[in-house]
Design goal:
The complex is a heterodimer of chains A (112) and B (114).
Chain A: E1 4-7, E2 10-14, E3 19-25, E4 30-38, E5 44-51, E6 56-59, E7 62-67, E8 72-77, E9 86-94, E10 100-102, E11 106-111
Parallel strand pairs in A: 2-11
Antiparallel strand pairs in A: 1-3, 3-8, 4-5, 4-9, 6-7, 7-8, 9-10, 9-11
Chain B: E1 4-7, E2 10-13, E3 19-25, E4 31-37, E5 44-50, E6 56-57, E7 68-72, E8 75-80, E9 89-96, E10 103-105, E11 109-113
Parallel strand pairs in B: 2-11
Antiparallel strand pairs in B: 1-3, 3-8, 4-5, 4-9, 5-6, 7-8, 9-10, 9-11
The chains are: A mainly beta (112), B mainly beta (114).
Chain lengths: 112, 114
């Protein structure tokens, strides 16, 4: 059974810092991996999608990497801003493209 | 925590027909969300469904195409109307319970439109 964990559970940093969020999964047979942002009381916003054949994806100040063999993904946020404060979730989708398994999330606070 | 079930888990439908997807939660929740993931694309929010009020749709999604019901605090349905092959997707419901940043997800419904 696929399990997804995220470290750290919470993170508080001053504005301007670069930071890394970690996601681990137990079964490397995945279809793709996605990173999401969740703001309080809102639905998820998709940030980056990495197909199983890819090693990284970049969007603006965000960069996500995927190492399937070791069951790890990282989300790198450059030059963090207070507007980046949110919960960040990673999710893997199984090889059938059907089942989502979400991590518990990392709650990020960027202090002005 | 919350345990969410969805019905059907998968279906194959003909163009022009409609399918209603059910989402059942084992506890009362205020906020429910409906998402879809088209092949090779990211998960996209369709609408937010709060009990006792009209669903709020995201840009690009309309009530005539995706009517939603939310009759009580444990149940919601999403209908995909007048389907076309472009509607072939995984449809996912989720709920927000406990803290504002806690969200739980159903197993998804895989829809194929021929």
């Amino acid at each position: 059974k696929q399990e997804v964990t995220q470290i750290p559970a919470a993170l508080s940093v001053p504005e301007g810092e670069n930071l890394v969020l970690n996601c681990s999964f137990t079964d490397s047979a995945i279809y793709n991996l996605q990173w999401f942002r969740q703001d309080p009381g809102k639905g998820l916003t998709s940030l980056l999608l990495i197909q199983s054949s890819q090693r990284e994806q970049t969007s603006g100040r965000l960069n996500a990497s995927l190492d399937k063999s070791s069951g790890r993904s990282t989300l790198y946020i450059a030059a963090s801003q207070p507007g980046d404060s949110a919960t960040y979730l990673c999710a893997v989708i199984d090889n059938y493209g059907q089942n989502f398994v979400f991590g518990p999330g990392t709650r990020l606070s960027v202090l002005p | 925590s919350a345990v969410i079930s969805q019905k059907p888990s998968r279906d194959i439908c003909q163009r022009g027909t409609s399918l209603t997807i059910q989402c059942q939660v084992d506890s009362q929740v205020t906020m429910m969300f409906w998402y879809r993931q088209q092949p090779g694309q990211s998960l996209t929010l369709i609408a937010t469904a709060n009990q006792g009020s009209e669903a709020t749709y995201e840009s690009g999604f309309v009530i005539d195409k995706f009517p939603i019901s939310r009759p009580n605090l444990t149940f919601s349905t999403l209908t995909v109307s007048n389907m076309s092959p472009e509607d072939s997707s995984i449809y996912l419901c989720s709920v927000s319970t406990g803290g504002p940043d806690t969200q739980y997800f159903g197993p998804g419904t895989r829809l194929t439109v021929l």
